[in-house]
Structure formats: C-alpha cells, structure tokens
TrEMBL record:
Lineage: Eukaryota, Metazoa, Chordata, Craniata, Vertebrata
Entry's Gene Ontology molecular function annotations: monocarboxylic acid transmembrane transporter activity; symporter activity
Protein name as it appears in the record: Major facilitator superfamily (MFS) profile domain-containing protein
Top-level taxon of the source organism: Eukaryota
Origin species: Dicentrarchus labrax (European seabass)
A Pfam short name: MFS_1
Coiled-coil boundaries: none
Transmembrane segments annotated in the record for this chain: 40-59, 79-102, 109-127, 133-150, 171-190, 196-217, 283-305, 317-339, 351-371, 377-398, 410-429, 441-463
One GO cellular component term: basolateral plasma membrane
Gene3D superfamilies per the UniProt record, alphabetical: MFS general substrate transporter like domains
Amino acid sequence: MESTRKKRKCSNNKDCLPVNRNMPPAAANKLGYKPPDGGWGWAVVFGAFISIGFSYAFPKSLTIYFKEIQEYFSVSYSQIAWVSSVMLASMYAGGPVSSILVNRYGSRPVVMVGGVMVSTAMVLASFGKTIIHLYLCVGVIGGFGLAFNLQPSLTIIGTYFQVKRPLANGLAMTGSPVVLCTLAPLNQFLFDSFGWRGSFLILGSIVLNCCVAGSLMRPVNKNAQQKPKTEQPECNGAAAEEAATVDTSAQSDNLTEEKQNESMTQGCVHKFIDLSLFRHRGFLIYLIGNVVMFFGFFAPVVFLAPYAKHQGIDEYSAAFLLSIFALVDMFIRPATGLIGNTRWIRPRIQYFFSFAVSYNGVCHLLCPLASGYWGLVIYAVFFGLAFGMVSALLFEVLMDLVGAHRFSSAVGLVTIIECGPVLLGPPISGALVDAFGDYKYMYYACGVFMLVPGIFFFIMHYYNYKKLDEERSQNVAVEMRTCEEAVQLKASQDDKITHETDG
C-alpha cells in the first residue's frame, strides 16, 4: 500500500513537475536563488535610472554645443556630428569589455569606474585644440565610460527582480527621457553662461553622479534568498535516490556531450563571456531582428526637427516637437513595464515587443502624410509612444530569452554587433535626404527598416514559442517516466526485502 501511495504521488504533476504559469516560458531562472523582487532592489532601480539616463541622454544633449565648436575649429557639420556618433558607437562597442568586467567584479565597481571615465573625458575635452582631440576624449573615452554605466545597470536588475522585472526595467529605462529633458535646458544655460569649455568642465563634475548611482548597486544577498527546490522532481527519500541511479547513464551521456561542446568554445575569453549564445535560438532571433531595426531606430529622432524646418516651421516650434516626443516617451516607458508585467502579456512578452517594433515602422511610413505643424505634433505623439515602448522592452525581452544568468554576456555581444547600425543609420538616412532633396524618402526607408524586423519577430517568435512548448512537453514526459521507473524500482526492492524477511 505504501508503494502505491508513492506511485500515486509521483504520478501527480504538482508534486513531481511543478509548472509556474505566471512566468514566461522562454528562459528558466538558473540563478540558484530566489530574487527578492523588491526591498533594496528599488534603490538599485533608482541607481540604474540615473546611470542609464546618462548613458543614452548624454550624447544627445551635447549637440547644443556643436554650433560653437564647429565655428571654433572651423570644421563642417558632418565632422562635428561624428562626436556624438563616435560616442554612441563606442558605448555599444564597449559592451563585451563591460560584460567581462561585470562577470568578474560585479556591477558596482564597473559603474563607478565608468562615471570617473566620462568625467575625465569631459575635463580633458575642455582643453581640446583640435576636433580629433574631441573624437578621442568625448567619443572614445567618454563612450567607453558610458558602456561601463549601461551594461552593469541592466544586468543587476535581473539579479534583484524576476516577477516584477518588466516593471523594474521600464522604470530604469525611463531615465533616458527624464535626464535628456533635464540636461537640455541645463546645457543651454551653461552654454550661455560659461561657453563650451566651461560647460564641459561643469558637465565633468555632474556626470560623477553615476558614481553615486553605482554605489547603490549593492550585490544581492544570495544566501538570504535561497531558491526553493521546486524545479526538480520530488519523489521523496530513497525513491529520489533511485531516480538518480536509474538516470545515471543518460545524465552521463548528456554531461559528456555538454563538455565536448563547451571545450570547443571555451578558452580564456569564454570564461568571462558566454560565446555559446551564438547557438541559442532565441538569442539569434533577437540579434538578427535588432541589427536591421537599428538602421532605422535613431534617425527619425535626429531628423524630426530638420524635417519640420524643411516644411517651413519656425525653429522654436520645430524644437518643441522634440519636447512633445520626450514627454510622451517619459510616461510610456513605465506604463509599458507595468503592462508587460501583467499575467496576460508576460508569458508571451515577445509578441508585445514585436508589436512595438511594427508600430514604429507604421508611424514612420505614415509620417510623410502628416501636413502642417499639427500633423507633425500628432506624429510626434504617436512616435513617442512607439519609441518608448520599444525602449522599455528592448533589454527585458533579451533577458526573457536567455535568462538573467546569461544576460550580461548576451547584452555585451548584442551591443558590439549593433554599434555598426547605430553608427551608420543616421548617415545613411542623411544620404537619402541629400540624394532626393526630400525627407519623406528617409522616413519611408526607416519605416521599412522597422516594419520588416517587426514582422520577422512575430513569425520567428511564434516558431520559437512552439518549439519551446514541444521541448517542455518532451522534458515533462522524460521526467515523469524517470520518476515512475524509480518508484517501480523502489517498490520491487521493498517487495524483495519483504520476501527475504518472511523467508
């Protein structure tokens, strides 16, 4: 009777194979502990809010000084525009280095070093004598410093949050429009009062706030948040030991195969960054779609004000379009995180991201149809909604695909590959304006660059979710069979012991 009860218990899916229907199925939590989903994690989110805000807003805010710097060095607009482009490209290219340092030393020291690097870059740039000096200081040193601010801030959120992770990421990503709205008027005031050299010195001190943000990124207490052992089949006592014995040969084969695969890619670099992600189905889907998407992601923002001026709108009204865009972007990012955290969206959040990317493409394709200033205001509102949705979900969906334990390596590999589209996207769009003498063809191209990967994401994530469901069903069947075999083996041993005792 006892063996019958054990068999009945192991046949129960709740006891043997627990399934969490509230969490996304794409990547399991393999952190080895249960994230606190709150507490000091909200202080970490605030630190990430500041750090991510400076990372994305700082290169854009420096454009206020470009006109005076251009006249001072007697260079063309395209030459001065490369300062921000090189800074953004360096920020993305420094992703793998930042990931290696985060995996080795943790997020807190890396963010603090990044803040010091950006501060040093701005101070050195204030003494610049040539435009090349600004490329090296602001572009390269400052860009790498921003990379040391961005990746660790994104990574540490995944160590503190699991259930509320979309909301936490959405709040952290809100730092970009908030800091941009703060730096834009501040930079104008500094420029009017101290010129570009004095402003760079002051900005060098302001950006040291990233060090304060980094100090908030205390490593999570893993010992206090031990992960409950509910992910393994529970057959209780000796039955669990027998299950391990029955499955020894299969596990040995799997371990041997895994070691052979890892030995092919492991080396000095693989110890710090996970190159096996290039064999991860979800990661490759994300990477391919994002490379195409980033060719048309930033250009519509860069050319929004010039496009308005091209239509005969005055400078102040054209600049106000960017303020409208930033204001909508500021509020939609946390709202997107809140929506993404609901039980209807979270299990299939990749579809939500696919919709956001496609929505961007549709907005750009319809932009040339907007006539007059109020037409562009409507476009700025809808574009702000679309841009904020993508920005809030951009790294959350990557963490959903690969898991928080592999996110640091994943974001490093993604950013270095994306630095090409980030660097070339606006110049290619500008070349279309020069070639046709009209901005509408640029917006058509950006719309295609966004709509095509959006459709690609819909199709490939449908395929990915289907394959994940099939793989999960196979794993359930294997574990159920293993559990039942262990119970049967234990029952036969009990019967044998009983017969020997009776005899």
